[in-house]
Amino acid sequence: MTTPAGARPGAVGRVEDTLVVWGEDLLAYRWTPTHPMNPIRLALTIGLARGLGVLDDVATHAPIAADDDLLRTMHRSEYIAAVREAGEAAAGHPVPGWSSAVAERIFGLGTTDNPIFGSMHDAAALIVGGTVAAADAIARGTARRAVNIGGGMHHAFAGRASGFCIYNDCAVAIGRLLDAGFDRIAYIDVDAHHGDGVQRRFAADPRVLTVSVHQHPATLFPGTGYPEEVGDGDAAGTSVNLALPPSTPDRLWLRAFHAVVPSVVADFAPQVIVSQCGVDSHRADPLTDLHLSVDGQRAAMQAMRDLADEHCDGRWLAVGGGGYGVVDVVPRSWTHLLAVALDRDLDPATPTPAAWRESAAQAALTVAADFATDVGVDTMGDGATVDFDRWEGNWGQQAPEGVSAHLQQATDAAIMATRSAVFPLRGLDPGDPRD
């Protein structure tokens, strides 16, 4: 086996200690031919990871669909039935009395974001089954780390589809870990969109810390995730929202992440970290306005792995999520995710295999023009600088080269808003460096 550059032999995430969920049946989660969430991104990710040797000697785990009992730990019975009936209608076999208007108005099924398709229940249940299998492996101790790039459906609610998400695999897996006896689970969501479905599910549960780092909700769906959303009742201080301005680049995003996330995670002292690793934060993503690079996303993944190593004896469950540069961006970023989980970290300067570039070029011809973004794929990075100035003692310092003073100030204001809203509730000092 060829060990990729940057591998960490003997670390907690050694190959035999990391579960990778994958099966081609995950490609069945396909809304419409022109829908932004095209599963070609998953196939290209696995192809790239294999081409680079990231998955050498790794026996992937094929998921099994979650049954209704498992789905009901998050979702209402009538909603599960509505998903099934909508799929049957899309396949040309509507049940008597089925109403498209009811499906859309009550359950969010049949909208532009969530059009109905024939296999929708089975495809969505398979994603849940994969993420729960990852959680079970961690709970049993047969794996310290586990990855399901097909997961991350963080917008789905108990009784309604939302934001390309039918069933919320993140929330079901967290519930499974709670049932297994863990009582301090940290959920870290770095998707450009707020992790609203997971936050709502656990907003009143002090056993779950939800942290979402996202584009400001005044500028992006779903319009939630303000710093003032801190959790309910006895769980006040366990919902943490870091809402960043549009155009935030790597160096400011990483500054903000490290100004908030490590502190609240350390204070919470989790036993497991669950990470939603959506990569629609990339500067070329057609649906969002953040300005990260693949290099910056890789740095975020490494930071979450390091938090799990530091606080959870390495227990880390990572899932995919958003990401609509389906050919150019997502495969490289999630190949980094797999490499990070397996301690086979790839240098961003690593060339991509010629055979994979050819397959990516062919795939680009099959996707809607808006989602075959014009980003170079010759290497595993974008050539970006990910060094950043730490928050402590540096409020108002000169902006990094290429970053406007206004954006620097807006990012620092976002950091301070989150620290001021949450830190006192956790007995932490917001630490305004201006004082």
From TrEMBL:
Which InterPro entries does the annotation name? AcuC, HDACs, His_deacetylse_dom, His_deacetylse_dom_sf, Ureohydrolase_dom_sf
* Keywords for this protein: Acetoin catabolism
Pathway in which this enzyme or protein is active: Ketone degradation; acetoin degradation
UniProt superkingdom: Bacteria
The family database entries (Gene3D superfamilies) matched by this protein are listed as: Histone deacetylase domain
User: Could you tell me which species this protein originates from?
Assistant: Williamsia serinedens
* Kinase in keyword set: no
Is the Transmembrane helix keyword given for this protein?
no
Say which family it is in.
Belongs to the histone deacetylase family.
Spell out the CDD domains in the cross-references: HDAC_AcuC_like
Q: Which residues form the Histone deacetylase domain?
A: 35-339
In Swiss-Prot or TrEMBL terms, this protein is called: Acetoin utilization protein AcuC
